[in-house]
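Data availability (excerpt). All sequences and predicted token strings are deposited with the supplementary files. A representative entry, Aldehyde dehydrogenase, is shown inline so that the format can be inspected without opening the archive.
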Amino acid sequence: MSDMLQNFINGRFVPAKGQDRIDIKNPTDGSVVAVSPVSNEEDVNDAFEAAVAASKAWGRTTPAERQNALLALADALRDNKDEIVEAQHRNTGQPRAQISAEEVDAGVDNLRFFAGAARTLEGRAASEYMTDHTSYVRREPVGVVAQVTPWNYPLLMGIWKIGPALAAGNTIVLKPSDTTPESTLVVARLAGEILPPGVFNVVLGDGGTGQLMTRHPAPAMVSITGSVRAGRAVARGAADGLKRAHLELGGKAPAVVFADADLERAAEQLIAFGTFNAGQDCTAVTRILVEDSAHDRLVELLAKYAEAARTGSADDSENDFGPLINERHYADVCQKLENIPSHATVVTGGRPVADTPGFFVEPTVITGLRQDDQLVQEETFGPVLTVQRFSTPEEAVELANDVSYALASSVWTSDHGTAMRVSRELDFGCVWVNTHVVFVAEMPHGGFKNSGYGKDLSIYSVEEYTRVKHVMHSLEA
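Structure token line:
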């Protein structure tokens, strides 16, 4: 019998009161590895009641106290890496080495950054703007926050929310994806040994549970990483309660490749960055825009590296990437590949991986698509890269910007001036030059348009979880 998962509320694991259940399946073979409850209104109320009760005391802790707590949590993640990796591997099918390096190690680093950031928040120095009055500005925690994390990077996306919220002095009710909750529950157990009860709470459930959280009166802020559809629902619910919303949503990242780029290096990295995590990444390379004179050579190189990339149900240490997350998403990606228009050409891939259980799709490179085609305009969230031509930098920018998403992009060229000019014109929250999908805790991440608003990482993300208060003193009293 599969394990029945529990909520984590007020410092301990408790059975959910909601009676509905969700099977958690390993996407490498479809086997049921755990059963998750669907938390109901009573469960959500209990979690927020705990967060509200803990909010005042946690908000009054010193920055040093919050720093020490986050450093202790970082150490706990490091010391329990193997358990976290196995929990997440069961839910996602990601290669263990990927989870270890790109989520646990990165999460530890990010928590240590946020620990330091806890001691950098400060108001502005007192000044006299009116005779016999002194003013200053305070940065305070917003209070209680609701957070919803995605299934593609369950641990790391949780850290991107937990770290800045705790650093700023907030208490949390977090709902992980109903597909991949187990690594978050390990974090909850570890946090329960470090943080006061009620500071960090986890409720399990589906989109309905998320809506209950969004519309609950307790949180002053709601943060979600997820689809555009889910983000819009959260934004509507937050607006009804005049709550602050922080949305990190979809992407359709272009890579603009000029003829003077190192094409061999570009092709190798673009395939790596486009198929990493099976392309299930809002910042993954999905659209390659290449200068006319370099088109054929780059396509040849892309095919070479795509055909060398490994996936499938073999031991995950042999694979570059794992499966798509579940049967529904697998069917959606396969349907898009089956419906490629006749004017396009599949250079390599374009099919499920043959003779394997689970939800695996071959690395795919497609040329000849038009700007209004579905695979160019809509997020695929699979190991699928499209290639389009451009003649001038202006045309490249026009094609790159002509989608509803604006999260991430990259420019590939040996000309510094070209890189600077094109970076300026690209309408995306992040632009990389001669690389792609490289994150550091010190720099902000977030998009525009349908990719949402607000920033993850950096001191900017900590400020997202604060409010600004003006205090004025009369000097005559």
